[in-house]
């Protein structure tokens, strides 16, 4: 039997070697310092106005690995999210998910630096996640709070995506998408700002969904464009209960939805492929407040509304108009039906009048037309739970035609005399009705607020130029409403000191605005008819610029 060999050599040297035997294997509590990778960009963001860096996590990762955490974002602030990596990683994507799993904001560009900027309106809580797309190495994820007024500067400082109008990066190479969006929006009319652009994987078994908020007084435009491998699509808008409130219409291979509402509502856009899997580009745009009147009449609008009993709807409307100087209304009632018109005779007061057609449950999507005693059209309006008409003139007998465009039900017509009747409005009844209707779309407003309106003659062959001085720290809104002659009006606001301009087009009423900073801005209003000759009422109103 062999004797056991000593672990160390003989003599004094052996004793010293044995005394210095290695320690046992240990697991260290050390962690990767995430601020090292994020530090330089976080400092640039802070210099542009962002708050301190908060590291959500850091780790070693390779293809497909993820790193994320929940973040609570104050309602009135923006959030900057950043993912930064070591040189071994060639591509990292960054996402902010809602609680239901919908991607609220993404940066999916083929880049080793990913940044998103989420600004109001946004969910209270988001799950911020980084995903390694290629390579292996260290990845660090962090967020910073950003005041709304510093959002643009911070986004430029770090190259953040996710702001209104930005692409996710995944759609950058989508063939022809930008031209398609421009043509689509031009056909709709009004002005739009992007709130979501996302490439969404779709299949035939289950619908893929993204969230969207339809704010009261605004409209949403949804355009869904499939990639080549997706043959056919079904796109619907659902409310919080899962009820389908609208179905998208076909535009060749694309699908589109235009939704408007007087009340704020959270929606889900559900997209399902018929038969094949692939990707679709989903682009969601938001209108300016009250812009429904500027949308082309050829564009089908889905009106999302809440149903109320007629008595409740009338009471709520009376409270909304309290304090505007209206007296008690003259009231008529009737029942609206699908496929036919219900006519009610009314008496118009001299001066200007407001006529509200209020829908009672289950009536939804109301079309109302106002005709004079000699059968001249005085106004037309359409709304989900309420259609409001305005008219000015000498008064007398008239009629209101009411038609249900979705579900039948009871309605009430309330006629109120306006406390004031500016002469320019009385002289141009149809233009006055369109102007007052556009003004009231952003909140209760009466004819007195249009006292500064002026009548101008327009000609398709000539530009009409009106001077405009915008005081310091204010915004000027210009509204132009056509009279009975002519259709199609262009409105261009020009900063005459710099040459910068904006252009808005609509069929009968158009609006645009421009703001001045610390110094007044000399500007000009340019108006032109699309064809023929006609008159218009033009109103300029100013308001303090938001800080």
Automatic annotation (TrEMBL):
Q: What is this protein called?
A: Uncharacterized protein
Q: Which organism is it from?
A: Sorangium cellulosum (Polyangium cellulosum)
């Amino acid at each position: 039997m062999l004797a056991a060999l000593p672990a160390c050599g003989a003599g004094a040297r052996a004793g010293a070697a044995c005394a210095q035997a290695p320690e046992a294997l240990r697991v260290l509590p050390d962690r990767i310092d995430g601020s090292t990778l994020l530090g330089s960009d976080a400092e640039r963001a802070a210099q542009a106005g962002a708050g301190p860096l908060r590291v959500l996590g850091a780790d070693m990762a390779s293809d497909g690995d993820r790193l994320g955490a929940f973040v609570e974002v104050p309602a009135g602030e923006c959030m900057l999210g950043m993912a930064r990596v070591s040189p071994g990683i060639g591509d990292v994507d960054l996402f902010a998910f809602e609680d239901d799993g919908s991607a609220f904001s993404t940066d999916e560009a083929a880049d080793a630096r990913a940044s998103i900027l989420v600004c109001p309106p946004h969910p209270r809580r988001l799950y911020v996640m980084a995903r390694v797309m290629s390579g292996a190495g260290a990845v660090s994820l962090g967020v910073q709070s950003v005041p709304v007024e510093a959002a643009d500067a911070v986004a430029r400082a770090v190259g953040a995506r996710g702001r209104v109008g930005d692409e996710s990066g995944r759609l950058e190479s989508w063939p022809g998408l930008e031209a398609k969006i421009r043509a689509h929006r031009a056909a709709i009319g009004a002005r739009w700002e992007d709130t979501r652009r996302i490439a969404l994987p779709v299949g035939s078994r289950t619908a893929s969904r993204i969230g969207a908020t339809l704010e009261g007084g605004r409209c949403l435009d949804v355009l869904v464009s499939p990639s080549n491998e997706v043959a056919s699509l079904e796109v619907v808008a659902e409310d919080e209960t899962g009820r389908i409130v609208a179905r998208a219409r076909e535009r060749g291979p694309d699908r589109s939805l235009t939704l408007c509402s007087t009340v704020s509502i959270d929606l889900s856009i559900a997209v399902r492929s018929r038969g094949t899997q692939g990707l679709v580009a989903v682009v969601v745009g938001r209108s300016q407040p009250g812009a429904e009147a500027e949308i082309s009449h050829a564009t089908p609008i889905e009106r999302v509304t809440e149903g109320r009993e007629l008595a409740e709807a009338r009471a709520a409307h009376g409270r909304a108009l309290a304090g505007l100087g209206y007296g008690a209304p003259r009231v008529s009632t009737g029942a609206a039906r699908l496929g036919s018109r219900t006519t009610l005779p009314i008496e118009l007061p001299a001066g200007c009048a407001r006529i509200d057609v209020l829908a009672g449950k289950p009536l939804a999507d109301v079309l109302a037309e106002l005709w004079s005693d000699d059968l001249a059209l005085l106004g037309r309006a359409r709304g989900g739970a309420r259609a409001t008409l305005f008219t000015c003139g000498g008064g007398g007998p008239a009629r209101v035609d009411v038609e249900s465009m979705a579900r039948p039900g009871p309605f009430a017509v309330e006629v109120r005399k306006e406390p004031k009747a500016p002469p320019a409005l009385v002289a141009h009844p149809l233009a006055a009705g369109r102007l007052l209707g556009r003004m009231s779309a952003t909140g209760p407003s009466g004819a007195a607020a249009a006292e500064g309106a002026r009548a101008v003659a327009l000609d398709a062959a000539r530009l009409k130029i009106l001077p405009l001085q915008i005081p310091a720290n204010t915004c000027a809104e210009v509204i132009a409403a056509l009279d009975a002659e002519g259709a199609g009006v262009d409105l261009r606001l020009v900063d005459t000191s710099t040459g910068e301009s904006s252009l808005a087009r609509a069929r009968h009423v158009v609006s645009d605005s421009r703001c001045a900073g610390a110094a007044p801005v000399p500007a000009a209003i340019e108006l032109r008819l699309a064809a023929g000759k006609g008159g218009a009422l033009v109103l300029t109103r100013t308001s303090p610029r938001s800080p």
